[in-house]
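Lab notebook: predicted structure, single chain.

Context: the supervisor wants predicted structures on file for every construct in the current expression panel, including those that have not yet been purified. This is the next one on the list. No modifications to the sequence; it matches the entry in the shared construct table.
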Amino acid sequence: VQLVESGGGLVQPGDSLRLSCAASGFTFSTFAMSWVRQAPGKERELVAGILSHGSTTTYADSVKGRFTISRDNAKNTAYLHLNDLKPEDAGVYFCNAVQRVSRENYWGQGTQVTVSS
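Prediction complete. Output recorded below exactly as produced.
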């Protein structure tokens, strides 16, 4: 089982990024996907989640209207579009896959997002 995040980097406030999470080794289309971030010295924070069929999404209040989570089950990939980035959005972004029935739970290694002028 693998979850591989990519797309992080150093950007300026107001910039955009697209994070990708490529999944393998499990039936991606049956898993709910989420993005969780962790800033230095802070606890992990759920940023966004999407159910297996992609019809239902949820967002942290701090990112509503700026971030969009999506998934392509044909490509076994989840995405997080980050718009209008702010310094407080900086951190390591982790991809998480959860299967409600079997309770399988997988994590990626994370991708760093730095927002600085």
